[in-house]
Design goal:
The structure holds 2 protein chains of 2 kinds. Chain A is α+β, with helices and mostly antiparallel strands. Chain A has 9 helices and 22 strands. Helices cover 20% and strands 42% of the residues of chain A. In chain A, helix 1 runs parallel beside helix 2 and helix 3 runs parallel beside helix 4. The longest helix of chain B is centred in the first third of the chain and has 15 residues. The chains are: A alpha+beta, B alpha+beta. At the A-B interface, strand 2, strand 3, helix 2, helix 3 and strand 5 of A face strand 2, strand 3, helix 2, helix 4 and strand 4 of B.
Amino acid sequence: MDLKDAVSLGLEEGADFVEVRRELSRSTMIRMVDGVIRELTRGREFRISVRALYRGGWGFGLANSEEEVAEAVRDAVKLARLSSKWAEPIQPDWPSFRGKFEARGSKPAWRVPVEDKIGIVEEQDRLVRSMDRVTNRNIIMADTLRETEVVNSLGTDVTQSLPRVRIAAYIFAHENGVTESAFESRGGVGGLELVEGSEVASEAARRAVEALSARPAPAGPHRAILDPKLAGVFIHEAFGHAAEGDEVVANKSILSGRLGDRVGSDLVSVVDDPTLEGLYGFYRYDDEGTESRRKYIVKGGILSGYMTNLETSSRLGMEPTGNARSMDYGNPPIVRMSNTFIDRGDWTFDEMVSDMREGIYAFGSLYGYTDPAKGQFMFKAEGGWLIEGGELKQRLREVAITGMTLEVLANVDAVGRDLSHDPGMCGKMGQWVPVTTGAPHVRISRLVFGGR
Amino acid sequence: MLREEAVRSAISAGAEEAEAFELLTRQVSIRIEEGRVKTASSVRLVGLGVRASIGRKLGFAFATNPSSGEETGKEAAENARAAPEDPDFGGLPDAQRVEYMAELMDPKLRDLDLSDAASMFLAAVQSARISDKIVSISGELEVSFSKVAIYSSRGVDVAEERTYLSAYIETASKDGDRRGSGFGFADGRRLDMFDPEKVGREAGELAIRTLDATTIGVEELPVILQPKAQFTIIPFLVGEAANAENLQYGRSFLTGRLGDRIAREEVSIVDDGRIPWLPGSSSFDGEGVPTRRTHVVEDGVFRSPIHNWYTATKEGTRSTGNAFRGHTSPPSISHHTVSIEAPKLLMSKDELLDVRRGVLVVYTMDRPNLATGEFSGMAETAFLIENGEVTRSLRQTGMGFRLEDFLKNMDAVGDDVESLMGFRGGSVRARIKVAGPGAR
């Protein structure tokens, strides 16, 4: 069944709004451990999903082939009717979008023989194979091509083709009974040119070896500088999730009802921008078909926007920002970030350090999470340096950093001019989507380190 | 059948051995937002993952919703041809005799009507609404029925049906400028393992109790980790630190420590794949090897890693039945249900709390570092204990310890046993360092 016919069928069945999405994705994954290919995988996935809205209740159904679409439409409408028993009515008076977009890159991965891809992974491994104290080398490269089409009953009809490539190195080093590790990755939307010649393995190996001489970070509050990776994860976890429209309308976020309020130091501006071509969180259309756009979440310390999908935009009285995303079309789209970053300031890193008598320079991000309701967050730094007398003195081990989002943003006292972005995967409600986190170096006057 | 087609196709495309993993999943879910049903979903998915080998070369391919197994089998064989040799690959698993468990599939869960599921879940929402200070209730109920089958050219031919339910409720509370949050969770393979009122009530009570918050400074204190604060820590010891792949590659802090004392003598840590109705249980693992009970730590001594077929063959030993897999990747290694067994340290809840000053951790989402065995994380939901009484909620409380020290210093295990997310056990208590911004 044609997607438009499926939409018509949903309306005939009584739905107030119907959306049908078709997805075909192909992927290759290569995992090399200590110079041996442990995994060489190719995959294909196909799905058609149907979402229906009936008097405020949503229903979601899935077809595994075009022959099953009519059944999925009827299922979705039936489920929407079931949900509507407990729902508040919603008027689907949302904008519609039409268009086609195809990203290619200069060296499309799906045209490159798998042997050449193995060559890229081998090259990374070769760079660190004979490095002193390196004991385990893990290089992973994955490419995907995701082709999607979204059609809805408001007239939206968009198709999009996005190839993504990512290479990552996870390196272990050992000396005198101490083992340490470090992780580094590169990637984006485009072809293999994004990962060829990268230095992920040597960078991870350098940091793993360096960490062998590290000691635990001193526990308690300290003045701190966060590197772009860590500051990027901080703004994503601690602030970005709290600015997602679904959290806001559900009154689960510390930012609910605070538009226009001061939420941080005037040095802090936060942007979510899916239009940055080439970055890992790039897309032209979101998974509801809305055209993506750049927006400030915070400008000069003032909360100036939320990220929305179709439904939350109308409930918040805003335009949809193109932040509806799903892991794959087996899942309904929810409000997600894209390329989210702290905008650049005018400090250099050296100026920040030399201005400090005591503190910690924390770098690298292992992971982080937040509780948007309490405004409490944790993120895990890969390591750090103790700063004394304006100099980096002692290498520190992995450490947890905890804080209250709004207190920390208010305590930002310097923002660097060296903005950079890192690819990663963000999880929410069991769905993982590609994003970038970004920031320049950022200094915070007081941050609590967990120590060990 | 997809799996047989795939194996035949891989062999005729030049593979010497082939194995196909087939998964059929039917899942329904109810999503709650703002205390109301937001979305009802019904999803059916067919997954196929195929391994093919030529000598010591191994390839893998997968497909979601394929119309036949042919192309996936052929791609796996092509990948095997393209892959360089792996000197440690000792072949695909042999067929083993599997003793099938009866307690994995609950017909009531399999046949649960979506409308009944919604009504049942709304009872949890109702129970969470314990005060007008609760400003948000959300959550999700997921019920799935799956058929898992593995078929190979080496004679593996196993299949079984499993059901699974997971439910969580999240709450947010507000009282003036004070904010709190709560969480309730349950999972299992049987419908009556889900008590909606209990899950909702827990989430509601936590949200109210966390409104009244304070902070502490840097102190060394007796810390009690409740069961929900352990599922990222204790199973980590088995699933990651004692994972044979991590040991063989020297990634784990337990590398070279087999036979060493890593916990106090009264403590054993067990992985069990055959506990009736628990989500970590199955008759066979992701390679068709029968599951079993493995003493990873026995009387404080590190006794056994957990293996899949690859790591076991590499060491010349037998798989412990810990191969873990979905259809989109080849088997890795994971734990089933991990328990701490320490009957000599058993205490009641009141005895556990009997400290002058301490911290009760309800949740943490953090895990230790694989290479160092050190834990540095946040007590996400935690309370201060003063003179044996649980008093105020704590904010911004970091915790730091070496996992081995924690297991050696542990002085009590509670009788408040819970099973969740691959962990079963009661609260544990040990003296560790906590770090906050200072007392308020």
